[in-house]
Amino acid sequence: xxxxxxxxxxxxxxxxxxxxxxxxxxxxxxxxxxxxxxxxxxxxxxxxxxxxxxxxxxxxxxxxxxxxxxxxxxxxxxxxxxxxxxxxxxxxxxxxxxxxxxxxxxxxxxxxxxxxxxxxxxxxxxxxxxxxxxxxxxxxxxxxxxxxxxxxxxxxxxxxxxxxxxxxxxxxxxxxxxxxxxxxxxxxxxxxxxxxxxxxxxxxxxxxxxxxxxxxxxxxxxxxxxxxxxxxxxxxxxxxxxxxxxxxxxxxxxxxxxxxxxxxxxxxxxxxxxxxxxxxxxxxxxxxxxxxxxxxxxxxxxxxxxxxxxxxxxxxxxxxxxxxxxxxxxxxxxxxxxxxxxxxxxxxxxxxxxxxxxxxxxxxxxxxxxxxxxxxxxxxxxxxxxxxxxxxxxxxxxxxxxx
Length: 403
Hints:
With 403 residues, the protein is α+β, with helices and mostly antiparallel strands. The protein has helices at 3-6, 24-45, 224-237, 273-284, 298-317, 363-366, 378-401; strands at 49-53, 56-58, 65-68, 71-74, 80-83, 87-90, 97-114, 120-133, 142-149, 170-171, 183-184, 199-200, 206-214, 240-246, 260-265, 288-293, 323-324, 350-353, 356-359, 370-371, 374-375. The radius of gyration is 24 Å and the shape is globular. The N and C termini lie close together (11 Å).
C-alpha cells in the first residue's frame, strides 16, 4: 500500500474516564477506531481484490445474463465484501461496446428500528452493489469481469480461449485476485530438525496499473494483446502484480490510479489543453508516460513516424526533453540488465526525459510475436518481454519516489 494512502488514516480512540458522557458521537468514535484498524490492516498486510469465489459464468443455456457466484473480496478502502448467495445479473444495455461488471461496498441502514414503528434504524448492514458500467468509476470498486458486448449476438458465453475472449465472451483478465502468502515447512536435515512453525516464503505484493490509451485514428485494440502478454509474464516473475485498464480517457480521474500510461497509435494526434493538463498532473504525481507508434504496414509505417513526432511535440509541451537512453540508465537495469537497448519488432530507438519514454522499437508488436508475416525469434521476443518488465518496474520505482 502506498504511503499517501496510509497517511489518510487518522486513528482516534475514546479516552475513558469516570463521568464520560456516552452519546452517539462517543459510541461512533469507539467503533470507527476498530473499523479503521481493520481496514488499515487489510490494505497494508493484504491485497485489494477477490479473495475467494465471485466467479462470473455464462448461464446454461446462454442468454443475456451471467451468474455471479458467492465469494469474498477486499475493496480499495479495505472494506470486506461478502456475497453470500449466487446472483443472476441480466445485462441492461443494448448498446454495442465494452461493459464492466463491478462490485462496490455499500452500507444499508437496517432493523430493528427505535421506536419500532417508524423510528431510526439501529443497525448498519455491510452490503454490496453489483452493476454494469460503460466506463470504470472514480469511487472505490472491484472489477468482476468485462464483456465486449454486441447486442446482435443475443447471448453471453464463457470464453473459449480465456487469454483471448471474443465478442460477448466473459473476459476475466483484468480481475484483481488476492493470492495468499504461501507457507511451506523448511527442509528437515540432521543439522536442522523439523521446525514447529512453517516459514513464509512469499508475502502480499503491491498492485500497479497500466493504462492503455490509443490516440489518433487507430483501432482501440492496437497493441492490447501484446500488453496482456507482457502483464502475464510480469505477474509470473515480478515482486508486484500488474493489471491493465484499457482505453482510459485522458481527462478521466482513473489515470491517477495508473502507474504507467501506455500511449500508442499509427497516425498523428493532438491533445486538448485539458488533456495536456491531466498528463502534466500525472507526471507531477510520479507517473510515467510511455509512448510507442505502430509501423506495421506501409500506411502505418508513415503514420508511426508522425505519431512519434506528435509525441515529441507533446513532451515539449509538458516541458520534458527526450534524449537517447544510454548504458547505465535505470531503464536498462530496473530488473533485467542490458548493455544497450534491445531490438524490438523495429530497429532500436528508446528516448527518455522527465519520466516520459518513447520507443521507436515497436515493443508492443514484439510482445505479440512480431508483425503479421514477419515473426520474431524467441530470443528477441524474450528480450523484449524483459525490456517491458524493466519499463514497468522503472515506472513503479518512479511512482514510489514521487509519493
